[in-house]
Amino acid sequence: MKLKLVMMPPQADLSRKWAARLQRELPGYVVVVPESDEDARREIADADAAYGWVPPEALPDAKKLRWLQNPFAGPFPNYYYPELIAHPVMVTNPRGIYSDHIAHHIMTFVLSLARGMPDYLEAQRQRRWDKNARRHPYIYLAEATALIVGVGGIGAETARLCRAFGMTVLGVDPRPEHAVRDVEIYPIVALDRLLPSADFVIVTTPHTPETEGMWNAKRFAQMKRTGHFINIGRGKTTRLDDLADALEKGVIAGCGLDVYEVEPLPADHRLWTLPNVLLTPHIAVRDAENVPERRFQILLDNARRFAAGEPLHNQVDKAAWF
């Protein structure tokens, strides 16, 4: 008897192409692509597996569902609602497919802040030839310390790159899965003790009930006055007004952000105009052409494993959201 996998709506051309590829490569499956929420509820009733999101109103119909592949490592809020957490379905995600791209974006922030690029860019905008434009301390990376909060795939690759520049790298992670040469990884309880030692605090953590708002006035006050804060994980982990206060008052020296507590970042927010601040609009992997194929290969590999009764890659602790 064939297994049934439902590609949950909303559908896009890419999802339909993937469904056709799965059907060709895995003849032991029936792959269904419902076009509406109503069709999806009907199809999920006898499905063994699904790709996407099963909304709360459809979950009671999913009597046979044993595996759900989340398309995103950091899903939207309420993806993991209480009924899904309690359901026996196993959830997997594609963590690891973005690691190199996002680590490169992080290093763009690190290098730019270390070399004073925000100050020189301001002089450039003013058409001002000014060799003394730098208003913030120069940071020699071979003598600098990076504290990486969240040493998953992205954090581990960032740690490797930081080490290549000669940096001392410390890691904090509640569930270490990656070993990085010459990097000691500490439990989350060590975070506050380590903060004062870091020239760069690099945050790659997901948004969970435990991480929401963890970067706030109290934590910024524990950083070096010459320290820099970089967040490329999830915006909800950081209180933006507290961050702006810390920058304005000189509690920390600068920041680089690709994710925000509110997106889009409001046009009147102070962060837009503060010095030594780099902002990108949640685009770290936007133009990475190989990421969709990596996402498909995770789905394909897990589908093969599911059919063979083998352990699936990237299993999620649903209660922890990652």
Give structural notes:
With about 325 residues, the protein is α/β, with parallel strands linked by helices. It has 2 domains: about 5-95 and about 290-310, NAD(P)-binding Rossmann-like Domain (Rossmann fold, 3-Layer(aba) Sandwich); about 100-280, NAD(P)-binding Rossmann-like Domain (Rossmann fold). About 30% of the residues lie in helices and about 15% in strands. The protein is built from 10 helices and 12 strands. The protein has helices at about 15-25, 35-45, 80-85, 100-115, 115-125, 155-165, 190-195, 215-220, 240-250, 290-310, and strands spanning about 5, 30, 50, 65-70, 90, 145-150, 170, 185, 200-205, 230, 255, 275-280. The strands form 2 sheets. The protein has a 7-stranded parallel beta sheet with strand order 8-7-6-9-10-11-12, with helices on one face. Strand 1 (about 5), helix 1 (about 15-25) and strand 2 (about 30) form a beta-alpha-beta unit. Helix 4 crosses helix 6 (about 155-165). The longest helix has 18 residues, at about 290-310. The radius of gyration is 22 Å and the shape is elongated. About 40% of the residues are buried. The mean pLDDT is about 95.
Entry keywords:
single chain; 322 residues; alpha/beta; Rossmann fold; 2 domains; seven-stranded parallel β-sheet; five-stranded parallel β-sheet; 10 helices; 12 strands; 14% strand
List the helices and strands and how they pair.
Elements: E1 3-7, H1 13-25, E2 29-32, H2 37-44, E3 49-51, E4 67-69, H3 82-86, E5 90-92, H4 99-115, H5 117-125, E6 145-149, H6 153-164, E7 168-172, E8 184-186, H7 191-194, E9 200-203, H8 217-221, E10 228-231, H9 240-248, E11 254-257, E12 277-279, H10 291-308
Parallel strand pairs: 1-2, 1-3, 3-4, 4-5, 6-7, 6-9, 7-8, 9-10, 10-11, 11-12
